[in-house]
């Protein structure tokens, strides 16, 4: 459940609890329930509200923790991808500059990169030189 949906449902539940409290007050005023019954039912309503509030706070904290872990996980993956791409790019660049006669296919077999990537790296190196 998204945080927005959760907040909407919580507000609906709070409204329902307020309606229950109003109904209890009306029942007490009309003599339909005793003062003791009113107190007990009001306590149950309060307990429901507290339970909802505590669980909501815990869920928000868990959402924050999950979001932080997910963000950290994505950042770690991104760094690994950048590192690998840099290492592969350096390996391709090294092979092209140290062995100018190597074909793209030979470099591909040594690095595991596709021909298009090697061709692109070779083109970028030629632009620099």
Give a structural overview.
The protein is mainly α and 129 residues long. Helices cover 88% and strands 0% of the residues. It is built from four helices and no strands. It has helices spanning 3-29, 35-98, 104-111, 115-128. Helix 2 crosses helix 4 (115-128). 4% of the residues are buried.
* Silhouette: rod-shaped
Oligomeric state of this protein: single chain
Poorly predicted sequence stretches spanning 5 or more consecutive residues: none
Q: Assign a percent range to the helix content.
A: over 70%
* Intertermini distance: 55 Å
Indicate the mean pLDDT. 76
Sheet having the most strands: none
Radius of gyration: 33 Å
Write the layout of secondary structure elements.
Blueprint: H1 3-29, H2 35-98, H3 104-111, H4 115-128
Helix pairs in contact: 1-2, 2-4
What key phrases describe this protein's structure?
129 residues, mainly alpha, 4 helices
Short description:
The chain is mostly helical. The protein has 4 helices and no strands.
């Amino acid at each position: 459940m998204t945080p927005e949906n959760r907040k909407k449902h919580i507000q609906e539940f709070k409204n329902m609890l307020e309606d229950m409290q109003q109904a209890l007050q009306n029942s007490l005023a009309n003599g339909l329930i005793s003062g003791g019954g009113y107190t007990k039912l009001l306590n149950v309503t309060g307990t429901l509200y507290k339970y909802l509030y505590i669980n909501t706070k815990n869920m928000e904290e868990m959402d924050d923790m999950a979001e932080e872990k997910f963000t950290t996980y994505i950042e770690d993956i991104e760094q690994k991808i950048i590192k690998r791409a840099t290492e592969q790019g350096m390996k391709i660049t090294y092979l092209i500059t140290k062995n100018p006669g190597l074909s793209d296919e030979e470099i591909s077999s040594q690095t595991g990169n596709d021909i298009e990537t090697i061709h692109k790296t070779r083109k970028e190196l030629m632009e620099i030189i």
